[in-house]
Design a protein that fits this description.
- By secondary structure, the chain is mostly helical.
- It has two domains: 1-63, Arc Repressor Mutant, subunit A (Orthogonal Bundle); 64-101.
- It is 73% helix and 0% strand.
- The protein has helices at residues 9-26, 32-40, 44-57, 66-98.
- Helix 1 (9-26) crosses helix 3.
- The two termini are 46 Å apart.
- The model has no long low-confidence stretch (mean pLDDT 92).
Length: 101
């Protein structure tokens, strides 16, 4: 179970928009995350991660998008469940094969 979220999606979105706005207005990439993080009282590395993921989701940076990451996690969960079910079926099959008919 994931840890509870400290920040709402609204706060995250607002902070990321502010970073992009500061970058547009100043024309510089450096310092925007630190300035916004300090202004909003958010950990700088946390905000940097949000901005990086927003850039991936927006196609501005290579990486796995949020949607793709969620789908991969769902598929991995499904694979684990299917493997567990397969092991149960194999065990049941072996059990019934040993039973006298």
């Amino acid at each position: 179970m994931p840890a509870p979220r400290k920040y709402s999606e609204e706060i995250k979105d607002r902070a990321v928009r502010m970073v992009f706005q500061v970058r547009r207005e100043s024309g510089q990439r450096n310092g925007a995350v630190a300035a916004v993080a300090a202004k909003l009282g958010i950990n700088r590395e946390t905000l940097r991660g949000w901005v990086r993921q927003a850039e991936v989701d927006g196609g501005q940076r290579p990486g796995i998008s949020t949607v793709d990451a969620q789908r991969i996690a769902e598929l991995e969960r499904e694979v684990r469940e299917l493997r567990r079910a397969n092991e149960i079926l194999k065990a049941a099959s072996a059990f019934f094969a040993l039973m006298p008919h």
